[in-house]
Design a protein that fits this description.
The structure is a single chain. The protein has a seven-stranded antiparallel beta sheet with strand order 2-1-7-6-5-4-3, sandwiched between helices. The protein contains three helices and seven strands; from the N terminus they run H-E-E-H-E-E-E-E-E-H. The protein is an alpha+beta fold. Helices cover about 30% and strands about 30% of the residues. The longest helix has 17 residues, at about 110-130.
């Protein structure tokens, strides 16, 4: 299965009538493996910041998580495994696998929990596959 298929069929899927507004699978080095057409153009230092927070949890909390120039307030996550961010009625979930970052961005009416389920389910599957 191609990485784009994972994004199109598993991340951009429907859950209770809602969809993510954008999604991507990005290598730890910031290389894009696959992304939705709506995923923001991000800066390499934004991915570096996310990776630093996975290595040293809490480093993004004071400054926020930036993705495509958008600032998200960092909320509860799982240290070293999941980072969650909130901005207004939307937000972002980032799940770290052995080789990649699985990212989902949502807006209302999708709930944070629905985004978490979609992103973390695929992330857990990839981890189980050694990816």
């Amino acid at each position: 299965m191609s990485w784009q298929t994972y994004v199109d069929d598993h991340l951009m899927c429907e859950i209770e009538g809602n969809h993510l507004s954008a999604a991507a699978i990005i290598g730890h080095d910031g290389s894009v493996w696959a992304q939705s057409a709506t995923f923001p153009q991000f800066k390499p230092e934004e991915i570096t910041g996310i990776m630093n927070d996975f290595n040293e949890p809490g480093t993004l909390a004071p400054t926020g998580l930036y993705l495509g120039g958008t600032k998200y307030m960092v909320i509860q996550g799982e240290p070293g495994a999941v980072i969650r961010g909130k901005k207004g009625a939307g937000g972002v979930t980032v799940k770290k696998t052995s080789l990649a970052l699985v990212m989902g961005i949502y807006d209302e009416p999708m709930s944070p929990g629905q985004c978490n389920i979609i992103v973390e389910r695929l992330g857990d599957y990839l981890i189980d596959q050694g990816l």
